[in-house]
Amino acid sequence: MAVTVTRPEQIVDVGLGGGPRPRDGNGFHKNGGSHDGDGGDGLNFSPARYRIGVWVAIGSILMLFVALTSAYIVRSASSNDWKPIAMPKLLWLSTALILVSSITIEVSRRSLKRNNNGAYSRWLINTVVLGAGFVVSQLFAWRQLVRQGVYMASNPYSSFFYLFTAAHGLHLLGGIFALTYLLLRTTKKRATIDGELRRIGAADAATIYWHFMDGLWVGLFALLIFWR
């Protein structure tokens, strides 16, 4: 499968493994150089590099949460001090927000690949707002529990609840910062194909990460509700 980046003066195919390949020869040598003397960046960048990097990061995060989940399951059956708490209703709102944000970031990514920069920026802003709304709703859920006298040290279940939500929230904040960085760079023009490919690669990687954080939260939420 290949992504095609199209500009009036140039057309380049981006393969998943082989990197960009000049197609029409307008200003570009076979070896990736250019006639315009920009010395440029050439066509040596493949968006697959960003995707590989994000999958490595996802693997590390997944290992962390698998370890925490295993400890949660073992601890829940090991003693009589396990006391499930009433799940704050705000968590349903935060779940809805992050699910919708997966849709908006996907629309944003596809808009960028269609060279619709205006739609890309708008949907990216929507995703950042929804992500921030998720984090805020989580904090309000914590506040609701504190008002009920449920703290991290109250019992093992509440400890895991705070640990799961805090760890996920911190990783999601990392995603929000990444999206904000992409948003700030939408105002910068890409004069070269290499620069455009980097932007597409970064958007792809951020989208993959965001979808992962969405799925991770759904899994954690289901665990906290059904494995009590």
Produce the secondary structure layout.
Elements: E1 2-7, E2 10-15, E3 19-22, H1 48-76, H2 90-113, H3 117-147, H4 156-184, H5 193-226
Antiparallel strand pairs: 1-2, 2-3
Helix pairs in contact: 1-4, 1-5, 2-3, 2-5, 3-4, 4-5
Mean pLDDT: 82
CATH superfamily: Cytochrome c oxidase, subunit III, four-helix bundle
Radius of gyration: 22 Å
| Gross CATH architecture | Up-down Bundle
Largest sheet: 3 strands, antiparallel
Q: What level of helicity do the residues show?
A: 55-70%
Report the total helices.
5
> What is CATH's topology name?
Four Helix Bundle (Hemerythrin (Met), subunit A)
Low-confidence stretches: 1-42
Beta-strand proportion: 5-15%
- Briefly note the structural class of the backbone: mainly alpha
- List the secondary-structure elements in sequence, H or E: EEEHHHHH
Amino-to-carboxy terminus distance:
44 Å
Describe the structure.
The chain is mainly α. It has helices spanning 48-76, 90-113, 117-147, 156-184, 193-226, and strands at residues 2-7, 10-15, 19-22. A hairpin with a 3-residue loop joins β2 (10-15) and β3.
Q: Can you summarize this structure?
A:
The protein is mostly helical and 228 residues long. It has helices at 48-76, 90-113, 117-147, 156-184, 193-226; strands spanning 2-7, 10-15, 19-22. α1 packs antiparallel against α4, α1 (48-76) packs parallel to α5 and α4 (156-184) runs antiparallel to α5 (193-226).
Features of the shown structure:
228 residues; 5 helices; mainly alpha; disordered N terminus
